[in-house]
Amino acid sequence: MADVESVAVVWQLASRISDLTFEGALAGYVMALACHAVEFASRRATSTARATAAVPADGSAVALLTRDGDDPAETGGSGEGSASLTDRPGWGERFGRAAVLVAGVGFTMNVLSLITRGMAAHRAPWGNMYEIVSLICAVAAGAWLVAVNRTKVRRIGLFVMFPIAVLSFVGGTVLYTPAGSLVPALQSYWLVIHVLAVAISSGMLMLSGVASAMYIVRTRRDRRRDGHTDSRSVLDRLPSPDILDKVAYRTAIIAFPLFTFAVVAGALWAEAAWGRYWGWDPKETTALITWILYAGYLHARATSGWRGSRAAWISILGFASIMFNLFVVNMVVSGLHSYAGLN
Predict the structure, then answer these.
(1) What is the pLDDT of residues 94-127, one digit of tens each?
(2) Cα–Cα distance between 16 and 28 in angstroms, integer?
(3) Which of 198, 335, 217 is nearest to 274 (CA)?
(4) What is the CB neighbour count within 10 angstroms for residue 177?
(5) Which range marks the domain in which residue 39 is found?
(6) Any idea what DSSP says for residue 54?
(7) Dist CA 335 CA 313 (whole Å)
(8) How many domains does the chain contain in total?
(9) Hey, which of 112, 155, 157, 247 has its CA 20 to 30 A from 6?
């Protein structure tokens, strides 16, 4: 009897640790969002300060000095042979580095939250919307950290961390449910396979969607700037359209096969649970629409005539379909998949 009570105490402790680490993850994501916001805003302030540098009374030219880490485009110079005001990076650069560090802490806490949640519930920790959103955020944050280390895309960190922070907040408040057993329909090994594949692919496609959205913003900014060389904007600090396009495409090309596998696994689970592979349930129908959109995006991206903004818009629509499937279908539409875990 004492052993049973001890195990129950351990399970309760694991549940409490899971909640606390999730709160820590949310705090980390919010702090990373704030640091990225400071970094993004500081670039305009730095640019303005340098653009209005004083000119000597005799009218002679003054060499424009830049700090390490500043973009030469912001100062109008090539960056080669520029003098350095200090060996230390600018404060915007330091906030950007801190943002990545704090996002890494948030990601670690998020993973610990999922592990301890599984220990407390004695199952895979993605059986309700709170857990699935937590997993999606962890995957999105992990994908973002990988992208930052491999490409120069840190300047879109503000726009990547915003949906992660919002989803984490919604998951920890509106969607939160205590650790417990699942409804009979979810007590299957297919839960581990199907839902895990959906969550991982959705988290990765979040990064692809943000990169596509920033591609649209940057290309429109570039078109407005053509012919107006003196026009400056904070949007000039976004990565080049080519980099954003590559991040969106490469992330999607990795996530799409996993999403395809998730759809197939869902059909197999449906046959095992309900005796049919496909029944045009709202969630199944939306998943098919999402699959078609991303298949169309990859095809458009590989076709020269549809590259650029057209392909980016398809990517954005694909991620919007994922969010619709996750929230609207689970919480509003009545169907066989309507077990959000909120009741």
Answers:
(1) 899 999 999 999 999 999 999 999 999 889 999 8
(2) 18
(3) 335
(4) 14
(5) 1-48+90-181
(6) -
(7) 29
(8) 2
(9) 112
